[in-house]
Here is the input.
Amino acid sequence: MARNVLYPLYQAGNPQLRIFRTNFFIQLVRPGRVQPEDTVQFRIPMEMTRVDLKNYLQSIYNVPVAAVRTRIQHGSNKKRDHRNVRIKQPDYKVAYVQLAYGQTFTFPDLFPEKKTDPETSSFEDIQNEFMDKERERQKIDPRRGGVPDWFGL
Amino acid sequence: MAVRGLASLCRGFAAALKTPGMLRTSLAPTARPGLTFSVLNRSIANITPHHQYRFIHTTLSRKGLEEFFDDPKNWGEETVKSGAAWTCEQLRNKSNEDLHKLWYILLKERNMLLTLEQEAKRQRLPMPSPDRLDKVSESMDALDKVIEERDTALRLLQTGQEKARPGAWRKDIFGRIIWYKYKQWPIPWYLNKRYNKKKFYTMPYVEHFVRLRLEKYLRSEAKKKSLQRKKQKMLQRKFPHMST
Here is the structure.
């Protein structure tokens, strides 16, 4: 429900514990291995359970969840720095969420190559543009109010 | 996608609510487009706002997994513009319900930025505008701080307790005086085997080491003081007309 928070003791008959503002931040990741179409892969905090994740997705994101499976990924402690001291990559929990109602999900391409417009202008136009840019660069700082550069400060 | 705009960190939301677009007279209860979230149980008729408010009703924006990603127009861009983070002062003006909603807006934005960061690492490309993450986490910390302030104020007024979690000053086995925070147990302390193994008293043979620790502390304090005095002396020697 939240990280780094002391949960009150539960005894039989107590009301359901509710936390108003969750501390859990999750990330959707591209799967390393090919997953079935209805499976979405998340990296979630270690303290989060599959039930937590199901409720999180259903209430905050309105995603219908059929099943959740989790595993803990060990972060490598093999690398060493210049002092031969081991460097630990953090451990994290991976969750595989299967969507309900036959929904599918494919991880989109978030870095598509943006095509620049083909050069329709002539060589002279490009030269003029370049000269304009150069002139802009050579101008002195407008905040100096017209005072030349060779004055100190 | 009205709330998509809200999810950005601009203060435009706050500004939009306070724009003097509508006149006071036109804020008749029947003319309002929809109920705000907070007005479920109260009647609207008696509210006369002091500022020129526009009551905005926005449905919860829950569009599924696409909220883990930015606006598709921003995919592939090198920089994405974003406003400043929320400050404590701005958040103190908001009601608890507004802060609750803002928390979840910031949470979703943070999740989106974290997915983007991870994908950028995966593709070995730079993440567009990573400063957005810092702004969002700063805003969330400020929100936490404001909520904590309100909680402590309420607790002080209602019960007079300064701390939410009870505790006590106790001596540990090393002779130090520590703030022991109480823990919730289903059984009383005299039946608690684990608690009784802890020793909140100091044995006499530890006094010698307590004294050594005290001497070490006093020595370090004296060193700091003498360092300050030496620095001042050196400065006085180099700059005799210096005023402290």
Q: What stands out?
A: Strands of chain A lie at 27-29, 39-44, 65-73, 92-99.
